[in-house]
Amino acid sequence: MDFRPTPETTEFLNREHGLLIAGEWTRARGGGAIESVNPATEQVIAHCAAGGPDDIDQAVAAARRAFEHGPWPEMSPTARGRLLWQLADAIEAGGELLTELEILDNGMPRDPAATQAVPGAAKMLRYYAGWTNKITGRTIPADPRPGQDTAPLTYTVREPVGVAGQIIPWNYPLGMAAMKLGPALAAGCTVVLKPDEHTPLSALYLGELIRKVGFPPGVVNIVPGTGETAGASLATHAGVDKVAFTGSTETGRTIVHAAAGNLKRVSLELGGKSPFIVLPDADLAEVAATAARLGFFLQGQNCQCPSRVYIHEAVYEQVVDDIVAAARALPVGPGWEPATRVGPLISAGQLGRVENYIASGLADGAELLTGGTREDRVGYFLSPTVFAQTTGDMRIVREEIFGPVICVQPFSGTELDGIAQLANDTNYGLVASVWTRDLSVAHELAGRIKAGVVGINHHGGGDICAPFGGYKESGWNREFGAEGLEPYLETKTVVIRYR
């Protein structure tokens, strides 16, 4: 079916999209440009400025001025929280436009664009709006110094770290922007946000809302551009105090090296190869439906997806048959079609990358149960894919594919160390899940699995009030919850002698 965006969305797409620096929209100083391509049609839908090193210099300088001078450092915590709350209100008011931007720019189906991405961004900002006046230090009962009768008054103060450079990926654009901005702004930092070159549009509209609700100029600067230019310049910039990055583990390593120049703080939310462990007493109908739904959520282009499904041999055949049936039943199509549950991959390059992994699996002897082929239509569509006869040394089992591919594998016995070893046999440690009705087994496995989030009869992160992040090569630090504030705060100790 043909899709006609709302007049408001059409008007936004047709604008000349610049960079938000010091509260004003500006052209890229080097004249760089990005074409935003709809992955469902392969057609250009908008043209945006692409920032380079000079633009990053200007944005960092604006963020530094806003951090050290003007209304932002003088603003009360409650006033900062009010601005975040008003930004959440503005996101909800522009919800249909933002939903259509996510569908057109990213390929995301309407569900979850309208049901999760937009309301989730507003919820995230409101959560951190509530934290602004609850960031506190503590009083420490110190001992007297040698030769003194009384102890000094010793207390700590939590202060914003400074200018934060934030680099977000293309797979969940609006949500990622809110995840980064919320804690940074609640802590009192200023920000240079670099959205991915594939999906700049929702971040640029967010920039309009930031201006509209009245954030002081320079508090949030938005500079789309490529990773090699804008991203690299932001990561190495001596005027940046902290870098937050979400993306691939390979790029995360590059960020770490780039940040070493001035030893800036770094937080990383990186890749995953999440195990999904099914024991014989699990609710098998729920297991199959969940594995398929979450395995192909966002076309498998998400770090949490259960891409390694381990099933006890006693129920293996039944669960695999049900997963394959559920995968085949998922409607594939453009995100604007209401029934669609699996949209296109983000780009021709990403489609080719996933196809290469599928070819690798076949060459290594894995059995293709369903999918594995490009859809016969315009757009970067790939059928949901399930492999069996997989082993732990195959690339499709060891490496993050970031596409709609699930690998299933049976296991025998119920010895918990062996099950945990299967789950932990990866360089990653982001999310894992265990499906069982036996709470003793559930608790024991939760303790033995090396992952930042372990779900019991649940897969994926919890609510935004709970910390999210990974072990091993899945990243450093945590996002969400109170822990999400920590990377944006410094701790200062004050010691006062009375006499």
Structure notes:
This protein has 499 residues and is an alpha/beta fold. The protein has 2 domains: 7-270 and 476-493, Aldehyde Dehydrogenase, Chain A, domain 1 (3-Layer(aba) Sandwich), CATH 3.40.605.10; 275-464, Aldehyde Dehydrogenase, Chain A, domain 2 (3-Layer(aba) Sandwich). The protein is 38% helix and 20% strand. It is built from 16 helices and 22 strands. The protein has helices spanning 7-13, 53-68, 71-74, 77-93, 95-106, 110-129, 173-187, 201-213, 227-236, 249-259, 284-295, 316-329, 348-363, 395-398, 416-424, 439-448, and strands at 19-21, 24-26, 33-38, 43-49, 139-140, 153-160, 163-167, 190-194, 220-222, 242-246, 265-269, 275-278, 308-312, 367-370, 385-388, 405-411, 428-429, 431-435, 453-456, 471-472, 475-476, 489-496. The strands form 6 sheets. A 7-stranded mixed beta sheet has the order 14-15-16-13-12-18-19, with helices on both faces. Helix 5 packs across helix 6. The model has no long low-confidence stretch (mean pLDDT 97).
Care to give the gist of this entry?
With 499 residues, the protein is of the alpha/beta class.
Q: If helices are DSSP runs of H or I spanning 4 or more residues, what is the number of helices?
A: 16
Shape assignment: globular
The total domain count is 2
Q: Over the alpha carbons, how many angstroms does the gyration radius reach?
A: 24 Å
What is the secondary structure topology, with strand pairs?
Elements: H1 7-13, E1 19-21, E2 24-26, E3 33-38, E4 43-49, H2 53-68, H3 71-74, H4 77-93, H5 95-106, H6 110-129, E5 139-140, E6 153-160, E7 163-167, H7 173-187, E8 190-194, H8 201-213, E9 220-222, H9 227-236, E10 242-246, H10 249-259, E11 265-269, E12 275-278, H11 284-295, E13 308-312, H12 316-329, H13 348-363, E14 367-370, E15 385-388, H14 395-398, E16 405-411, H15 416-424, E17 428-429, E18 431-435, H16 439-448, E19 453-456, E20 471-472, E21 475-476, E22 489-496
Parallel strand pairs: 7-8, 7-10, 8-9, 10-11, 12-13, 12-18, 13-16, 15-16, 18-19
Antiparallel strand pairs: 1-2, 3-4, 5-6, 6-22, 11-21, 14-15, 17-20
